[in-house]
Design goal:
The protein is an alpha+beta fold. The chain has one domain. Helices cover 38% and strands 15% of the residues.
Length: 176
């Protein structure tokens, strides 16, 4: 741990009952961004083109090919913004704040259109009970910036541990 860093900076408290509404909303927001990634990225075996990755500020799609260039979408849990960046220098930033999944979906799709990124996604969330189409979901609308930041810091710590473990593994990492 660096000077001045305490254990809570790396592994913050994240009691489920305290952040459950934000967690549920972020889950749906992440599905929207993940489905954009799914729609534009070439298929890789085991759906490896789909996940979001831990970044220095939150979660990112990493670069996705589009129209001769690339773009990325990042959840910034420090500034609490969704940042869409294109390789031609264009950027669009949307605030992360309490808003419904329907509003977030509309904002993201409008921002992509504004940036010249034409993408269609299947708007039904997956792998959850009783899914609500994104454009109709007014139920999930919480965003607590403190808990979103804690979630990202815990993910960043877990990511570091898993990368350290994986780095020591000298065998084959492929599924059989």
């Amino acid at each position: 741990m660096g000077a001045g860093m305490d254990r809570d900076a790396h592994w913050p408290a994240l009691p489920l009952e305290a952040w459950q509404p934000t967690r549920a909303t972020l889950h749906m927001w992440n599905q929207i961004v993940g489905k954009v990634r799914l729609a534009v990225s070439p298929y890789l075996n085991h759906w490896r083109q789909v996940p979001l990755y831990v970044s220095a500020r939150g979660l990112t799609t990493s670069a996705m090919p589009y129209d001769g260039g690339v773009f990325e979408i990042e959840f910034d849990f420090i500034e609490h913004a969704l940042c869409i960046r294109k390789s031609d220098g264009a950027t669009k930033t949307l605030p992360l704040a309490p808003k419904s999944v329907a509003a977030f979906h509309a904002e993201v799709m409008a921002a992509l259109r504004f940036m010249g990124i034409a993408v269609r996604i299947w708007t039904m969330p997956v792998e959850i009970p009783n899914p609500i189409p994104f454009e109709k979901d007014e139920t999930h609308a919480a965003y607590d910036p403190e808990y979103a930041n804690r979630f990202w810091r815990a993910l960043a710590s877990a990511d570091a541990v898993l990368k350290e473990f994986r780095g020591r593994f000298i065998g084959s990492a492929r599924a059989r």
